Amino acid sequence: MSEDPRGRVVRRAQATLNVVITVFWIVPMLIFWYRAWDARAPLVSMAYLISSAAGLMAAFLPDSYFRPRAFELSGSLYETAGVQRFGRYMMHGDYMNRRIRKIIPGYRVIGGRDSMHRIEAHTRESERGHIVWLLSGVPPAIYAIVSGWSKFAAYFVVVNIILNIYPILLQRYTRARIYRILRDA
Predict the structure, then answer these.
(1) Dihedral (CA of 45, 43, 149, 156) sign
(2) I want to staple 135 with a disulfide (CB 3.0 to 4.6 A). Which of 12, 55, 76, 185 is the partner?
(3) Residue 177, domain extent
(4) What is the model's pTM?
């Protein structure tokens, strides 16, 4: 039996995403903590604990946090920030969808009301995950700044923007669009 082409493309994209996260986020973070760790400086241990604890707090965000606010529903704030352009390159973004449609002409990420609810729930979980990573990356960036490690600090700030802040904004933008469509339907 042949493999579903759509599934193969999606799995490849997810594997690529995992490699990107590992190479650009996890490995540099481990290198930073290895270089920063000093038993004579207990602040390093505290920064690490704060980092871990801050990230885990996102798991307990209430559902109300994920509901789009009135100012988000138009989407103009996100479009001005370039979130729509950013989304073109993400999982299920315009470029990936175009590639899948070459293989499966009728392919759609959202095929109706039920899939909108499914995607909306997925945006919550994805946003929650990016908030965990974001909050886990802020204390090391602050510690790097305070320690005078400007290259690590700059790297963590830039990577946090690309790998966490923009994806969070994209999830909120997508969820606001879904809310607006369901409200107007």
Answers:
(1) positive
(2) 55
(3) 5-184
(4) 0.82
